[in-house]
Write the structure tokens for this entry.
Amino acid sequence: MKKEKAVVVFSGGQDSTTCLFWAMERFVEVEAVTFNYGQRHKLELECAADIARDLGIRHHVLDMSLLNQLAPNALTRDDIAIKEKEGELPSTFVDGRNLLFLSFAAVLAKGIGARHIVTGVCETDFSGYPDCRDVFIKSLNVTLNLSMDYSFVIDTPLMWLNKAETWKLADELGAFDFVRERTLTCYNGVKADGCGECPACRLRSNGLREYLAERTSIQSGEGQ
């Protein structure tokens, strides 16, 4: 375990909760930051707060309501449908979200003496979101270091994992059941396995099914 402090960008979803467990295993001190940007479901904020409390993690909630005002989309407006069209960004993409979230997380991190910022962005299953790409994270990392004259490290433990591999990581961290039962990934605000219909739920459930099949196959082989 590194004798360093980390801040986890935390939504209470599958990916960020897996990252929280990952950080807890690696850093001597971990805090979480959640952003209230007027997201479609307030349950997301409650879910994040509940998880942080139960894990004994200091939890910061920052007001980012201006983002809701600037970037109307399916995650901030009930009257905008959740749609995916080939060749276009999904209607759930929020312009500037990760740029702003990581920038404000960095300000918080410096204030509390943390060098590491952990985020669950992923280029393998990134739904076409440009601010989930590795090149963006690396670029922002350099910019943040220069802007504050402070050596941040943006850790992205899920960057090259697909959803099945993310489930596997949660299992290796001893958090499989916790992540499956306690997190909120669903765009329709349904905890755990979700509504089963929205793009986030389909991605999550397909990855879960793939990982469980792999785990069963390995266990069957070991038992022979």
Helices lie at 14-26, 43-54, 65-70, 97-112, 134-148, 163-172, 176-182, 199-223. DSSP finds eight helices and five strands in the chain. The two ends are 36 Å apart (CA to CA). The chain has a mean pLDDT of 89.
